[in-house]
Amino acid sequence: MKRSFFLLRLLGAVCISASVLLSLSLGPVSCSMDSYADGGTPFSPGTSGGSGSGSPGGSAPGVSAPAGSGGAGASGLNIRRAVPPVLQSFTVEAADAMLLCFDKPVSVTNASLSLSAGGGASGLSGAAGASGASGSADSPGTSASLGAAGAAGGGTGATGAPPSPAAPDRPIAVTSESCGDGTSVRLVFAEETQIGSVYDMTALASDTDGNTLTFTITFDAFNGRLPELLLCELRNAYSSKSNKYEFVRLYCTKSGNLSGLELVNAGDGAGQAFVFPPVEVAAGEYICVHLRKMKDDGGSWMQAGMTDETDGNRRASTAVDSSDDAWDFWQDNQKSRLSPSDIVLVQNRTNGTVLDAFLFRDPKKESGSWDGKYEPFCRAVEQSGRWLDGQGQAAADFASAFPATNITTSAVTRTMKRRNLEFRPSSAADWYVAQPR
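Above: the chain's sequence. Below: its structure in token form.
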């Protein structure tokens, strides 16, 4: 009996070590081992043990083992369910409400909302009682699914984009209400969030076993006035001698606020996404995103007038390729952008919805396939239905891409341009090579 008890204690020690190692391997999400509400530990011996039902023996603290697993009680070994809640997804439903979905019934307390100090990309971080939390924002922002890879997000925006001046720089009270079976919890904010601002929502989730998860969600304020945008012109060439660099031009078919939208391409990856500033645009207006803002070896700007037009003046930007009839925005980047074959998307960064897509390929490649890293972009395009093949079917394969004839990385005198400006899916037949505006 003594030998059996010793082996079981040794097994408990090994399991505890495994649990700690798991906590430390979760990457960007910070985890911690919290104490339990009753002061117990993940494994604690009782005095007499349960028989078959898994009920704890004696007065030892802890949660009982599952029914039928106790046998003779194993000398009173009590096994806590040392698994904290997992936040699986969150959705910002309105300017004053957010829905959280967990893997088990929970209660959410100590919730507080405030402006994000970093103003960064949406995502999740947290600390969990017991074995640690896992989570990441696959589609940063308003609606996100959370997995085991840790917090995610990225992208840079217009350097002059200010937060909304109406957003209060103080904590906002939050109340919570359980929904359905308790795995979903709705948070209601005492004040509405302001378009263009980024917020941190911090709270504590507790399950019925006393395990806890403390987490912070960083998210873009709800924007119920998103515009409709079309990709209408693109240059993937550059010339440092003439200060001409890559740009993407868009056309607005429905008025709204740009907050929550981003421009991203597969060749550069999601981390290089351009995040639009909270600017009001009207139907019929153009937007030009300049993908480079160059400096010389001394750190000075290569040219004057690379101004982000966030104050309502569409003539503020005077640098090469600026347009008086467009909203000009400059990405804070000095590296070459856009590949010879690429997939370009304008999408809602809050839930990944694709507003428009453009696929082009190196004309030297009559056949072939996309690079493996393009696969997530291909799926997003095909699911959106915003790009069509020659038969008018939703597509994202290499063969359906526009063959960019006479376009090279040094062809700054030519762009790829869309023939029509209707908000509908396009195909290779809708695009042609033209002189830049």
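The longest helix spans residues 2-24.
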